[in-house]
Amino acid sequence: MKKNFIALSFLLSAFNINAQSYQKIHNQAIVVDTHNDILMKSTDNGLMIDSDLRGKTHTDLARWKQGGLDVQLFSVFCDGDKKNPFAYANRQMDTLDAVVARNPDKIVKVANTRELYKAVKQHKIAAMFGVEGGHMIEDDLNKLDSLYKRGARYMTLTWNNSTDWASSAFEERFKKDLSHKGLTDFGKQVVKRMNELGMIVDVSHVGETTFWDAIQTTTKPVVASHSCVYHFNPHQRNLNDEQIKAIAKNGGVIQLNFYSGFLDSNFMKRKDAFTEKHKKERDSIMKSGKEYFYADQYLFDKYKYEVNAMRAPLSLLIEHMEYIIKLVGVDYVGLGSDFDGIESPPQQLDDVSTYPLITKALVEKGYSKKDITKILGGNFLRVLKANEKKN
Length: 391
Fold this sequence. Notes:
TIM Barrel; three-stranded parallel beta sheet
């Protein structure tokens, strides 16, 4: 009996040491998430990010702090059918500005790495924008400059829709009558202007032709702000081995998306079955004027038990991460959750308070504190700093 008690005590002690170890590493690291869509939900639904939004969103200010987040790049998003997308982008930026104005002791907009480190030292969340879709500049380089001045530090060249100057992954795969593939001459001007400004070129969502044109045009490291690995799931949004190697050679970074549909090749079959089961309700929501992603999110929130059974395991996110590390090294991977832009994050990663579980998984895999610190944010900060340097 005494021996059993001693053995149990030893196991509990080891567990506590491990728990303290991963939490300490997490707290000491600068944790960066390069993609969160809460501004879209906040702007469209009148939600206040600095209020308690548990049960409504993946994100709010208190849960960010609970999850140890230090730096958030806020997605500025609208789909390709949105009228006056530049004006809408500015509305979303206004939403964040209002949150910052109300909470100067908790969150601050930063323009560069120097201001970012200062904010982190003051225990404030450092906030920047990432524009998700080149259609929001409305084919006007002056509008690109304007978004940069407001705090945009990357722009995703396309969303699922192509622009007049860049083709998307979705349309390169599924649209047969594309007017062009890749970057046009104007598209290359956009990339060059982004390099001049210090705005990171984001290759998530872009078609392969656009990807290679961007890699050949840019003089600065790129980011895939929220993408996963094609090897595990041949989705058009995921990056194949050659693309991963090219990003590493460029000195860029791949920020892994948490969406079950990008992580798990079988998820979409489960989602399709779920959607068919609730088709009448979904159609009714969309007839009321809501977009399809709002209808999906409503159903996912309503039928949580069914949805939880469909989610990818957390271990699969780590597998995507380790695949990149084994292929090109630990310097080229990070976190781009897509929280509040996805209806199904991995199991356990329920919201922004759960980032420490990723650190825990990496500790259990045997990664060093140095490497974990790179993954949690150091790699992206390197890319951000490299883009700030003048050509």
